[in-house]
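Same chain as my last thread, 73 residues:
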Amino acid sequence: MSDLNKTVRDTEADVKETWRKADGDESLGDKVANAGDRLGNAVKDAGDDLHEGADKMSRDAAYEQGRADEASR
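reply #2:
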């Protein structure tokens, strides 16, 4: 996964958490929102990892197909 995407997501979540604590009180709603943000980020990170893995498999398959095509000539 792109480390930049993960870093940006984590930074955004940190800023939101700080903003929610700015009033000096972290309510249950704040804690739930923070957990939701972190869970959403984890899902997005997993999606990025899956997408990158699929791209790699596609590139590898195309490379192997090219090698097979060259070998059959």
